Structures are given as C-alpha cells and as structure tokens.
UniProtKB/TrEMBL annotation:
Protein name in UniProt: ATP-grasp domain-containing protein
Organism encoding this protein: Marilutibacter chinensis
Top-level taxonomic group: Bacteria
Keywords: ATP-binding, Manganese, Nucleotide-binding
Domain ATP-grasp: 150-341
Pfam families per UniProt: GSH-S_ATP, GSH-S_N
Lineage: Bacteria, Pseudomonadati, Pseudomonadota, Gammaproteobacteria, Lysobacterales
Length: 362
C-alpha cells in the first residue's frame, strides 16, 4: 500500500470531522493527519482542516472556525489530497465547530515555540469549549493541556521510564551525567522530532558545554540515562483507545533507526523505518501505561520503546500510521475512522450524556 486511491466502503451515517493542525501551509503529505483526513473523505465523511489561528468565539457564545475543506472525494493519494488543500484557490469555509461530530487535535506544540507560543494553548481552550458542546474531542483537551510538555511522561510508573533529571541548572546536569559514567541523553523539555537531542559519551565531553547550552537556551532540559539498545534505534508502537493498534493480526508498529551515525532515529531527523513486531517487553510496557492513557482520554498515542524501557509517549501528534500501512499493507487509518464512526454512534445512543473523557477511549 502506498497511499494510492482505492474504492472505500462508505459509512452508513456520514459524520463531520475536523482536524486541528498547526497551519495548512506547513502540513506535509507524509503526515498521519493527511492520511486520516483523506481516508475519512473517501468513506463519505465531511472533513475540515483548522489551523491553530483559525478559531472564532462569536459574540453569541458559539465557536466557529475558518477551515480548509476538500473539494473532491477521488484523490489519487495523500499528495493529491494535500495539494488541493494548499492550492492558491483552495476552498476556505467558515464552519460551526459545535456542529462537528469529532474534532481531532493534531497540532505539534513544539513547532510553535518561537513564532507563535500563544497558539497551542489557545487551540486547546477552543477545543475544551467544543467538548462542552458535545463534540467528541480527541485526544481529550483537558488532559492534553496537562501533557503540554515532557513532564507528563514522569506521571507514568517508574518501571517504564529511564532514570531522568529535569533541570535548568548546568551543574545539576553535569552531576547527573557523571553519576551515569558519562553516558546520557540531553534533550529539551518542550520539543519533538529529535530537535536538539544530544547523546553524551565519555568521548565527546569536550563539547558538553555547547550541548547543554543548545538545550537550555529554550528552557528546561531533560537528562536521561543512556540505554545501550538505542544504538539499534527504537520501536514506535501506536495505541488506540489505550491499547496497541492491531488490525487483521498486524500491529501498527515499526522500528526507526539511523544508519548515518546520527543517534536520533526520528524520521524528521533522517531516520529510516522497517517492519517490526512488538516483542514481549514492548507489549508489557504498553499494558503498564494503558490505564493512564485510558483514564486521561488519550485516544491515539505513540509509544517510543528501547529495549525494556519507554523513551517517550507522544500524545500530541502521534505519527506513523502511513508508514505502518506501507510496511504491512493493512488499512490502519480506515480502522481509526471506523472507530470514530462507532464513537459518534455511542454518543447518540446515550443521548450525549457520556463525558468526552469517557468517549475518548471507550
């Protein structure tokens, strides 16, 4: 499967689906958001792409947004779909956010750090208003606010996490590194995609001050013990409703690695991917973190696993569905859209009395 066009089963009851993104101009055709949106359109649903700066709180107390709207249903692939939305004459509509059935929050806060630091929190606040109007908002916007940086990971059981120090103090960082025999990873508390991530070894301590400066200039640093298995990359395992995403016996899972000598395996940092099955350690870790993911309404998440530890949990813009589909030939994105259809049905069966947090991982 390469994301090409094909005949999709239409849902019995079309739904209105909104995706909150950073900005339509910065979307890329290999993003999970684009794959999900195109699959939803192909299944007969209406889709709206809402940038973080597109929300409107009207004088009558209703929430609207300026959104980019697909003009067709027969897109060849993700690139064709995105080209339509990014075209100079793309259709932009003023939509009622409250009339949506589902609002998926797919913006990356790290992209807004420098130019628009106000944007991520503003998007979450508008999303909370939508949830009060019984729009199903995923992931749950209240708990996403709590997860605005990597300290969220420290609320998961200690057993799943590497030993970690979070500080702005340079001497504290150096002391932690010394206590771990000069082997550590330093990265920003707020960030994604492998930006400003450094692996410290006894061989490169001459550059330690520069590494620390590069991280703490934007805020707190996370310093973690180095896991030797990381030299072989990491495992990305996607979860849905708090559990590993599995369709037709295949997991949405792959190994990310970098054979260029760069320690980062993130795809945006030049990493590569290969098909991988989650091993016993990965499934055990997924089982341990599931209760909190479910309790917090984290509908779609990405677990980054190295050996028997979890390096991170991505709950803002977990990606990789398109890569998992291309490696396995399994329609994971169609499964996600069908699951959203199911949630909308449950909301109506219960006369909109279920809370957003309940519906998020139900």
């Amino acid at each position: 499967m390469n994301g090409s066009s094909r005949r999709e089963p239409h849902a019995a009851h079309p739904i209105k689906l909104g995706f909150v993104i950073n900005d339509i101009a910065t979307e890329k055709d290999n993003y999970t958001t684009v794959r999900l949106a195109r699959r939803a359109v192909a299944r007969g649903h209406s889709v709206a792409m809402i940038g973080l700066g597109g929300f409107i709180y009207d004088s009558d107390g209703t929430v609207h947004a300026h959104a980019h709207v697909p003009r067709r249903t027969d897109y060849r692939d993700d690139a064709d779909f995105l080209a339509d939305l990014q075209a100079a004459d793309a259709e932009v509509a003023r939509i009622s956010v409250e009339a949506l059935d589902v609002l998926m929050l797919r913006s990356d806060p790290a992209e807004e750090l420098n130019e628009r630091p106000w944007a991520p929190n503003s998007g979450l606040l508008f999303a909370q208003l939508a949830a009060l109007r019984h729009v199903i908002v995923l992931n749950d916007p209240t708990h996403l606010t709590d997860a605005s940086n990597k300290t969220y990971f420290q609320h998961f059981p200690e057993e799943v996490r590497p030993v970690t120090c979070i500080t702005l103090d340079v001497e504290e960082i150096k002391s932690f590194i010394a206590a771990h025999d000069g082997h550590c990873v330093i990265k920003p508390l707020q960030g994604s995609g492998g930006q400003s991530v450094f692996v410290v070894t006894p061989d490169n301590t001459a550059n330690l001050n520069q590494m620390i400066d590069a991280v703490v200039r934007d805020g707190y640093a996370i310093v973690q013990e180095y896991l030797p298995e990381a030299r072989n990359g990491d495992l990305r395992l996607l979860t849905l409703n708090g559990r590993p995403l599995q369709v037709d016996g295949k997991y949405a899972c792959f190994r990310r690695y970098n054979d260029s000598g760069d320690a980062r395996s993130n795809i945006t940092a030049g990493g590569k991917v290969e098909l991988a099955e989650p091993d016993a350690d990965a499934l055990r870790l997924a089982g341990i973190v599931a209760p909190k993911l479910i309790r917090d309404g984290m509908y779609l998440a990405g677990l980054d696993i190295v050996g028997d530890k979890m390096m991170e949990i991505n709950v803002d813009t977990p990606g990789g569905i398109n890569m998992a589909e291309e490696l396995t030939g399994v329609d994971f994105s169609g499964h996600v859209i069908a699951d959203l259809e199911r949630k909308v049905g449950l909301r109506e069966h219960y006369n909109r009395t279920l809370s957003n947090n309940e519906l998020a991982t139900m």
